[in-house]
């Protein structure tokens, strides 16, 4: 026990304990920083998943209303942004609109009349209607 007390007393008197704390801090700082960055990434991923789910819910709830399309889109965008703001996630309107647009395109309840161009046997391009709900949706992660 006396040896342990002597060692601790020597560390304190020589100032070596300051160096030990300093090196411990230098070693721990990057590790703590990476943990903080990981937590931010997980939070952003969860916020994005929530945003997509809320957008899909808003779109599906407005499909059967008798309002014109642009009014439904604006209402869905406002609903999504206010819901996210109420839950502490603040997202700009451009991102919300791109996610709502993607939800409209991915929803099986909304018809799709987008035409795609496919070359025929002679190499000419003629419009080919995509069946409803089968068109490739815009990925909102690429827009923002």
From TrEMBL:
Ranges of biased composition (kind: Basic and acidic residues): 115-144
The protein, known as: Phage holin
Record organism: Limosilactobacillus fermentum
Positions of the UniProt region annotated as Disordered: 105-144
Transmembrane segments: 12-32
Keywords: Membrane, Transmembrane, Transmembrane helix
């Amino acid at each position: 026990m006396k040896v342990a007390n002597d060692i601790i007393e020597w560390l304190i008197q020589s100032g070596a304990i300051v160096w030990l704390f300093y090196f411990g801090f230098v070693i721990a700082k990057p590790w703590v920083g990476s943990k903080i960055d990981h937590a931010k990434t997980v939070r952003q991923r969860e916020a994005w998943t929530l945003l997509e789910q809320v957008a899909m819910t808003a779109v599906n709830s407005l499909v059967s209303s008798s309002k014109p399309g642009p009014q439904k889109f604006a209402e869905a965008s406002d609903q999504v942004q206010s819901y996210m703001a109420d839950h502490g996630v603040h997202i700009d309107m451009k991102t919300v609109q791109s996610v709502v647009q993607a939800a409209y395109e991915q929803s099986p309840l909304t018809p799709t009349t987008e035409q795609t161009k496919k070359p025929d046997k002679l190499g000419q391009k003629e419009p080919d209607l995509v069946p409803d709900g089968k068109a490739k949706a815009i990925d909102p992660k690429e827009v923002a």
